[in-house]
Every structure is written in structure tokens, then in C-alpha cells.
Amino acid sequence: MTRPRVLMHLPLHPVAANWVRAAEQTAEVVPVRLRRGGRPTVRVADDGVHEVVVPRLRPGRLFWAIQQQLEARGIVRLLDRLEAQGRPISVLHAHFAASSRGMALAARRRGLPLIVTEHSTWFTGENPDQPPITPDRLRRMLLPYHQASAVMPVSESLRRAMVRAGVGHDLEVCPNPVDVTRFTADPDRVANRLITVSRLAPVKRIDVLVDAVAELRRRGIDLELEIVGDGPSARDLRQQVIDLRLDDIVTMTGRLDSAEVARHLATAGLFVTCSIVENHPVAVIEAMSSGL
Q: Could you report the per-residue pLDDT of 200-220, keeping only the tens digit for each?
């Protein structure tokens, strides 16, 4: 049986690499990134991933629609280029409806099936960092779903939230994949080493974790903490660590690739999360696979 060839959109989210590795078990995956900021072009980046570059337009409904058209045009150009190379695409796969409009338009123009995997906590209404659902925002969010052959929320709770929000598409839950051969336990792990793996954003509440470590130290408990990840809260967290005089026991590694994350999880003794809201958190599943 011929393996399908899938053009998979990679959002700026660590879960994307897991989906590529999982899809490669049954299909040939051609990853693509959408870049906003620059002259319209289709290129191959230094890491070998195809990139569709479009200008960054001003906010607003009209400019938003134009930007999606530019993205779709670039994706169609990439599809034509791959076909000319003897690598025609069978299926388009996008993550997050909010960033899938260009893929949906390209799928319609080329008559290709589209899969949309939904991870967003927006539908649950529990994330204080995201605006509330309005009829206009929901209508724009639903456009990729109408084009999709399959819409896959990553958890049952997200599926129920999407139904309550008015998503009328048939929804099939498909949990985030994790490579359990990569994330394994280490018998020599350090029992008093805490670790968290997260995007460093206010909703993740890493500041609460740092405060907790400071309190444990005041109680005379010997421990250390590794914070793996990067994001808008990184600078404030570094200052918090300094202010609480924890820089000798708290390490901030920045963003690491999957292999490095696996190595750090394997040697830790306890995984901690303080996040306010999650759908199907990959970091927790990877920690469980690592024996934490």
C-alpha cells in the first residue's frame, strides 16, 4: 500500500514535533511553517523545513482576510513545487483552527482533504489570557472546520467545550502523541530534584512554583528545581529567582529540544505543574512516560 504524503503545518508549539514523529509511522510527512513578516516567498529553511513567508499586515478584519489569502497562495505554490518534484501531497494537516485558515483555503483550491487538530484552551473559557468567545470570533474560527474532512480535539473535555461553543462538525478525540521509547525512567534519578517543563507564560503560574520552592527552603527542605522552557514570563521569573535568593538551587534551562527534555525528565525525582488550564498537556504525559 502506498504511504500517503502529508503536508503538516507546524505551529510555534512544542507539541508539533510529536505529531510529526507519530505521523511518520504511517505516512511521509512534509512539514511546513508559516512566517509572517517579509516578502511573499516559499523557501526551505536551514533545518530543512519548508517555509511560506507572507507580509505582516495591520490588525483588522479586512487585513486578516488578505493575510489568509496570501498564506493560501503560498501553500498552493509549495504544493505545485512538490508535485513538480514528484512528491504530490495527499492530505493537508493543520494544528489550531486559529492558524489554519490559509491551509483550509489551499485545500479547497486544490481539492485535497484537510485534517485540523485542535489544542486551544480558548473553547473552554477558562484561560484568562485569551479573549472570550464572541459570535464573530467563533464564525472565523469555524471556517477551517467547514473545509476539514476531520476535526480532532486532543481531549474529551475539549470536545465537550467545542460542542457547547457551537462547533457543529463531527469531532473525534485524538490525544497528543508521545514517543514512549524516548521518554523513559532512569534508575539513578535524583529524588530531590523537581522539574517543570512549560511555556513560560502567566497562565502557567511558574511564579507560584518558585514561591513554593522558597517556602520549602525556609522549612529546611533540601531540594533543587529545573525550569525547562521559554516564553514571555522568562525575564520576570529570573528576577524572582534572584530576589528570593534561589539562584543556587533553581536552574532555568530555556527551551530544549525533545531529546534534551527527555534527558532532564529521566534524571529528575518529581514533576510539578501549576498551570491554571490545560487540555491534554504533553509535558505531563512525557513525565509519566519517564516514570515521574
A: 999 999 999 999 999 999 999
Angle, nearest 10°, between helix axes 234-243 and 206-218? 10
Q: Which residues of 54-72 are buried (b: 16+ CB within 10 A; e: fewer)?
A: beeeeeeeeeeeebbebbb
The residue whose grid cell reads 497562495 is 73
Are 195 and 225 within 8 A, CB to CB?
A: yes
Q: Indicate if the alpha-carbon torsion angle 46, 49, 54, 55 is positive or negative.
A: negative
**pLDDT, tens digit, 9 for 90 and up, residues 208-256:** 999 999 999 999 999 999 999 999 999 999 999 999 999 999 999 999 9
* Alpha carbon distance 110, 216 (integer Å): 59
Q: pTM for the full model?
A: 0.83
Q: If you ran DSSP here, which 8-state letter would residue 171 be given?
A: B
Task: Look up residue 19 and give its three cell numbers.
Answer: 505529531
Q: Is the dihedral of CA 100, 125, 22, 27 positive or negative?
A: negative
Helix H or strand E segment including 278: none
